[in-house]
Amino acid sequence: MSIDMRTRSEADICPVSPGEFFNEQLRAYADSGQVYMQAWLESNSPDDFTVECEGESWQLSVREGRLSVADGVAHSGLHVRMSEEEFSGLVNDEYTPITFFTTGDLDIPRGTLEDYLDWWLILRAVVDKRPIHVSGAIELLAKDGSQLDLEHKFSIEDSIEEMRYFLETAGFLHIRGVFSSEEMAAISQDMDTSQSEYTDGDGKSWWATTQQGDRRLVRMQAFDQVSDNTARLLQDPRFTRIGEIPGLGHVHNSLEGNQIEALIKPLNVVQGISDLPWHKDCAQGRHSLECCSLTVGISVTGADEESGQIRVIAGSHRALIRPSFVRDPKSFGLPVVDVPTSTGDITIHLSCTHHMAQAPRTRERRVMYAGFRFPSVDVSSSNTARTRLNAAREAAQHMSDKRK
Asked: For the residues 340-369, what does the mean pLDDT come to?
């Protein structure tokens, strides 16, 4: 088992003509890809799907478990309009419906985003030859064949091979006591004194409004540039060793100019994103080009259900499921795991592991997040798809309504 989910490279990306795709390629994909959606279709019956692109339309339907395509507009069901560039990016896995939703480019004359996500699952299944997940398809087993202990906490001195197996199987990892309480107290102090370096709307911070009407700074990007303690931490072997766990050469290479972010989780946020709902980090696209990267959380303060702990759906990195807008996380038949931490602990989750942050109930939480990527992933591309994806991620950061 490996966390390298990449099946495409930048060299594989080429324009996809909607006419050629629907009239030729999709029929071939449907014949060979039937097996990848068959189990899911036994309990799901998506309505017809019309794709309108540059004045032309095609209708997709599923009848008796078979995918078919015809010209024209279906009389009912989902209807989506998109440009040729958007369509090409969707097929090439550069975009998802979530991308268009967050940028405001989603054009659905009829139907819902949830309908669109169901058809996105079918598209990915037949194009990528990847089965749509159904409950019971994934087992989380230890090396001896017993059930994996999902509450296990590792030490930074533990075997990398043992941590690797757990990460590959469960999609997350909890390492206790990596940094001392004194080290975290110094960083917490920096989080207080550095807030003057950030202003609402500066493009390098997130802000939220509390029930009391206070405007609060909740995320400070490029925190190592204002905190010497954090800059030293990024060079510490206890941190750099994290990249060795997958055994695939991961390097600490987060977003350009943003090596680490410092987060404050206040109580009673009513506007702005502070506590993210269920999502995969690849929900905006490029799963088959970049996954899996590592997201590393450093607990500046401890976290539990009272202070806004992280939760994960174990094994979800191995499942083709909705990347966001999850109504019932238990519907996948995978364990939903709370990950309470103590000060100085580290959590790791993969970029395609479903996760969320609970809203704090009685006390605030402080945490820092950094990332490790495959060394070969190009994060500086300036093409249209990359520009749109960056815009989608920026829009997601600043959406004003909290989704529950």
From this structure: 97
